[in-house]
Amino acid sequence: MRVLLNDEDGQAIPVEYILIFTISMIFLGLMTMTFNSVVDSSSRQAIYIELTDTGNLISSAITNTYLTTPTDGVNSISLNIPAEIAGTGYFVEISDDDPFKIDNKVLKLTSMRKSVTAYVPLNSVDALIEINGSALSDSGKILIISNTSEITISQG
Amino acid sequence: MRSFYLLRDEKANISMDFLTAVAVIIIAFIFAVSVLSSIITPYSGYSKELYPTADRAVTLLVEDEGYWECDGGEGTDWEFKWNYSGNYNYSNVTKIGLLDSNEKNTLDPGKINTIMENQGSWWEYPVSSSSGPELDNASRAMGLGRYNFYIQIRPLNESKYNVSAANQRATEMVGDKGDVVSVVRYSRMNQLDLDDFNGANFFGDQNLLKPLFGLDNNNFSYILSNGDLEFTVANLSEISGHSPKISDISIGIGLNEYEINPSYDLQNDEFEIYKNDNLITLPVSVSAVSDIIKINIPINTINNIDNWESADLFYIQLSGDDLIVSKSGITLFSSNSKIDEFSLKTTIWVW
Q: What is the mean pLDDT of residues B139-148?
């Protein structure tokens, strides 16, 4: 032990390379993991924001459909929506899940990948008229059909 | 000195400078990525959804009549269910809407006054007296469940109200919040103003000399918005030629010919009657042509008539001595009343 502590001539080149290589690899791994984590978080946030935007677009269309439904006829709106958000399709449905805890239905949008879910309020339109239906984003269109008693959403 | 020796010793050194440089670059890289990420996606979903949510909420508020539903029935006259006659039926109101059932783009003053506080020709909600359960249910029924909100309705004509007071209240209620959106909608309102009744044109039961007044269902919002039914009768002495006297006043929602049946006779402590602006009690003698009789029946007295809000007409009948009516029939308030039409601005703040 005494020899080891006082030996100042034993510079081992291979050991130094191994040491530096190992530490560099650890740094590289950390960097990759952090980068992936940040990119994944940003991607989720971007998907959530886009889903919220799209949900609000659909929710506003539902409100307008309700307000413009004729008393003796059918109102039909074909709404253009993004087919993919951040490279992934998504599912739109009228849901009884109530994250806002107000005993009303909400519009639920779920991305196929990363399982990001956004809830958009229907502003209690469901208290005035029955709302049902679901749709996939594949076609880039969503169909909203309403009459005096019901509003249905489906794939356009 | 040992330390002096260490500073000068250059044996067995490894590339600490290299490792330090790599560490600094990596830390800088991670910092740059995280900062760039937050710059590229700076918006939270919450702030982005505020505007469309507020837009939908105020659209439904001014373009829909609202709705109530319970085991006993359903309808759009939710103003009679919200806080009717001291009964708090908030949960039966599924949707709050202010649209007048009979007019397009016109708000119902009865509905406005039911939910909002009248501050003198402008209205606001919520106010400090709004209870927790009321506010929760209002929030739900306006579709603003998870949000804070404040609503004002003002006349477009700024001479009709105190603009600075309304602005001050908006500043106090909304304050200096971070993410706040406001959305405005324009509508109209027809406010009923009960004009003087000219005694020469009274209708009623001729035989019993009972002038009969009727307020039709479309104008019931007058009672809700004012909290009473107040009207003025003039020119009474000319129709009798004698010394007419009002001895009784009754109210009701049913008629037998031109007499209220069943009738509810008002007691002196249940209403107010003024002769030439002086508060008096029954019987009231009408001795001069210039005598003006003002009758004020508060909503609490009207509530003694069960389900009056569902009736086609609400009746008030005067019983008198030496009173005479022109012919059989009903003097309808709507035929004598003035409708004050004005434009309104509804603003909702959501945060």
A: 86
